[in-house]
């Protein structure tokens, strides 16, 4: 059996149970510390989840001005198998904004989303209902799944604000998440900035278009896979309190 010492930049070592002590002792360390992880047969550490739900919203925006209220215009989510890193299912819908129904040219240039696309889409409550149905169909009740986002904005800020704006309850299963930047910092020893720059540094070619929600999800999923194969153990890094997150975030 072999274990990997991870989360310790430049100190990633594979240890053999027999050379440093009993496997029982090392397993205990792995469970109680982020430094030691039990390896699985796919070459990465055993994860505490069955699935990762990689999510990345796009929203109405303007150059150097904050649109208020900001509204979700693209809602993508990938269900990623936490052992194989294969994308097993994909949810992807565009959303029609109602407070600022006309997209700025800046927003279209940034995200690639055109006016016709949002005009033909459903408003947020209908898309959220579709998402909840997809989630229920894709994830057995006893499965362990964690939302993963690049940064905290999607589930800490945008979703609670959007739910309050639309007058719909925030789904309870969307109250916690893992911020992929923490994974990168654990493995590399420095806090990452933009996703495009990070991917360059990692030698990962950018798939599709940066700031397209679905392409961002695919790229985030590849970053997660690489970090996990380098020894990262995914964990929850943020959550909303039991009170309404919408007012506080
Ligand atoms: P991202 O997931 O990085 O593509 O960004 C999510 C959302 O943040 C975008 O859909 C925009 O609403 C907003 N955003 C991202 N970058 C910018 C920017 N440079 N200027 C204004 N808004 C931005
Ligand atoms: Mg994003
Ligand atoms: Mg994005």
Please render the helix and strand layout as text.
Blueprint: E1 2-5, E2 13-16, H1 17-20, H2 23-32, E3 36-38, E4 51-55, E5 58-59, E6 72-81, E7 87-94, H3 105-111, H4 115-119, H5 124-138, E8 145-149, H6 153-166, E9 176-179, H7 180-188, H8 195-202, H9 213-229, E10 238-239, H10 245-248
Parallel strand pairs: 4-8, 8-9
Antiparallel strand pairs: 1-2, 1-3, 4-6, 5-6, 6-7, 9-10
Bound molecules: adenosine monophosphate and magnesium ion (2 copies).
Residues 56, 150, 216 line the site of one magnesium ion.
What is this structure, in a nutshell?
With 249 residues, the chain is of the alpha+beta class.
Structure commentary:
With 249 residues, this protein is α+β, with helices and mostly antiparallel strands. Helix content is 37%, strand content 19%. It is built from ten helices and ten strands. The strands form two sheets. Strands 4, 5, 6, 7, 8, 9 and 10 form a seven-stranded mixed β-sheet that branches. Strands 2-1-3 form a three-stranded antiparallel β-sheet. Strand 1 and strand 2 form a beta hairpin. The radius of gyration is 19 Å and the shape is globular. The N and C termini lie far apart (44 Å). The N terminus and C terminus are likely disordered. Bound molecules: adenosine monophosphate and magnesium ion (2 copies). One magnesium ion (MG) binds next to helix 9.
């Amino acid at each position: 059996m072999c274990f990997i010492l991870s989360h310790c930049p430049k100190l990633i070592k594979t240890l053999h149970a027999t050379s440093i002590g009993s496997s029982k002792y090392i397993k205990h360390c792995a469970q109680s510390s982020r430094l030691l992880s039990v390896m699985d047969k796919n070459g990465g550490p055993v994860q505490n989840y069955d699935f990762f739900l990689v999510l990345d919203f796009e929203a109405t925006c303007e150059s150097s001005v904050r649109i208020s209220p900001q509204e979700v215009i693209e809602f993508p989510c990938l269900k990623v198998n936490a052992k194989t890193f294969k994308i097993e299912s994909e949810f992807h819908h565009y959303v029609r904004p109602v407070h600022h129904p006309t997209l700025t040219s800046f927003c279209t240039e940034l995200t690639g989303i055109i006016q016709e696309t949002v005009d033909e889409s459903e408003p947020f409550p209908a898309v959220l209902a579709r998402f909840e149905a997809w989630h229920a169909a894709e994830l057995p009740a006893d499965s362990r799944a964690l939302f993963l986002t690049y940064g905290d904005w999607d589930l800490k800020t945008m979703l609670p604000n959007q739910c309050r704006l639309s007058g719909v309850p925030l789904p309870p299963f969307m109250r916690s998440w893992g911020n992929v930047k923490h994974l990168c910092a654990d493995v590399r020893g420095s806090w990452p900035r933009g996703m495009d720059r990070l991917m360059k540094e990692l030698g990962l070619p950018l798939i599709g278009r940066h700031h397209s929600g679905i392409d961002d999800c695919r790229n985030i999923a590849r970053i997660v896979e690489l970090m996990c194969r380098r020894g990262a153990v995914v964990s929850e890094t943020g959550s909303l309190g039991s009170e309404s997150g919408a007012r506080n975030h």
